[in-house]
Predict the structure.
Amino acid sequence: MPRQNRPMADISPAASASPALVRAGAPPPGSGLSATQRALRKLGLLRDIDFALYLPMRYEDETRIVRLVDTRDGDLAQVEGVVVASEVTFRPRRQLLVTLDDGSDTCILRFFNFYPSQQKQLEVGARVRVRGEMKGGFLGRQIMQPSVKSAGIALPLALTPVYSTIAGLAQPVLRREVRAGLARAVLDETIPAQHLPRDAWSLRDALSFLHYPTPDAAMATLEDRSHPAWQRLKAEELLAQQLSQLQARRERAAQRAPVLSPARTSQTLHSQLMAVLPFALTGAQARVGEEIGKDLMRPIPMHRLLQGDVGSGKTVVAALAAALCIDAGHQCALMAPTEILASQHFAKLVGWLDPLLAERGLRVAWLTGSQKKKERDGMAAAVESGEAALVIGTHAVISEKVRFKHLALAIIDEQHRFGVAQRLALRGKATQGLEPHLLMMSATPIPRTLAMSYYADLDVSTLDELPPGRTPIVTKLVAEHRRDEVIGRIQAQLAQGRQVYWVCPLIEESEAVDLRNATETRDELAGTLGDKVSVGLLHSRMPTAEKQAVMAGFTAGTLQVLVSTTVIEVGVDVPNASLMVIEHAERFGLSQLHQLRGRVGRGAAASACVLLYAPNEGGRVGETARARLRAMVETGDGFEIARRDLEIRGPGEFLGARQSGAPLLRFADLEADALLLDWARELAPKMLGLHPDLAQKHVDRWLGSKAEYLKA
Ligand code: ADP
Ligand code: MG
């Protein structure tokens, strides 16, 4: 059975090509690098081990020669024969036409780009070996642009690997470098044998096999990720990730944070806030509040993710945490990714807390980038003096100029929108060597598998219960040409005194086009709905004051319909709104659609979300777009949405990790390899405890310089 085959190809240093250009401990980036070295660096190939772990995307079978008569249309074939004719024609375009005879049949080789040297190589009478895709056709068998070698050289023993490459790095060069790197790499085992399954392949065997599989290992076997060679690599990779997460957690545990003990008086801000809330906490809110409270009393910085579906009531949990912090005599910062979301938080929290803070000579401060300098300076001064016990704003809150007197708790809403750099900047706000506690909030729940891997260094609290009295949102797909029916729905809602959102299409290339669309839609809707209905417009280019005025109008109910671009995506909270129409829904991402939909269904009224979609010219919606729309109709559960989003987009996109630079899994798949993930999770703490040096070696090998990112 080919699956059980052990690698045959010898990758010992003696058999390898000349040394690579780049070695471990290579000169620092910059001058003196050849074009090849620069290209290799771009691919992340620096150390020998990086080369060894850089696996082919496919293989070419150069291990056998087939007879022309045995080939079929579409085969990728290698044939060998004699050139019996060769001519350059100019019709329909310049090309070199070569007729090859291998004794069983003839075929035409067609070259559109060719050099004189190639022409010479293909002179009549020359014996050559060519590889390419066979095409049957009017003229008989043909191969377009085949690769050509002289005949007679020995056939390789292993399939020829093809690596993903970039401009300026030719495949043969890369192949040679990888081969050399693999030969030099030290591949001693880092996982103690007793922790591996008895029949596990060694790392060296697995890598040798995947780079140079023997010809009898069918191609299909290699693509089969359950092959023992793949299993070994996936296990290695998952273990590296778990180890680094665990290390990060331990490092964090070595840091110090202010201990926020509960105030001794009965009139705490926390208890006063509880008293002024217009509702009782849900069970989930109370539980999560306690989890956070316990963290804040520990001398180790909290690193907690609060996840809860849209509308689950995260804001009040954040406010209560802030109150605990202020009760302990410290400052709290609350950050949101957009100004409009930050201002919603500000409006809500000022309403609840400002009167209570005023009694204590404290206040809530507001900080954003768009603020007038004078105002911002004033706020910054209040932050520095400690008078601003709570600071709310965008990432301006953590700008270098803002100095806290004693920041003890930072809350980040929609944390996935913040980059690594911003999270690091926050850590720079430590006062007296004490790191602030960190509470991150997200309406996009992290699927279990991701929580266990990328976010293993995070404590997770979940609001798994919606405030009472919510009715499920009915989601409908409506084709663009039935737009008129939607107007009827809108009128029906307005007649009941309800309000409506209309979200305009997202055209990423051009904000100006977005804006024009939104403006036209507003005018059009205002015309159709008549004078008695007031239709507002909201988009990101509006001045802040105007945005706030429009939001205030919609909140107060003086605006009945709100046409907007996606600025309302997060955080907007108007319980009386019961219908949301999303135009060109096929252009939005799944979690974005879900977030948008979460703007309705916040009151007791039955709510609906209409997804207007426009089929493209072919009358179809693309496959992934269809999967997203289907998911929206089929489920309202944020966890299920997140799971499907992960499925559709893959973890890289899901996490936005491309931008943040966090290393992604190259080989393992969190869903498909759940068992291996469990194995790695169990082994990681044991390794750190019993074999710390092996653990470190393992992490270095796999993550190298990238490990830093995981700690942010
Ligand atoms: P999200 O989790 O999406 O940030 P919000 O904090 O904006 O949710 O809360 C959504 C709405 O539910 C708000 O109007 C909020 O005041 C309300 N709310 C929060 N908690 C409760 C509760 N326990 N009972 C009733 N309403 C609540
Ligand atoms: Mg929110």
User: Anything to note?
Assistant: Confidence is low (pLDDT under 50) at residues 1-28, 655-663, 707-712. Residues 228-253 form the longest helix (26 residues). Residues 13-60+159-234 form one domain. The radius of gyration is 31 Å.
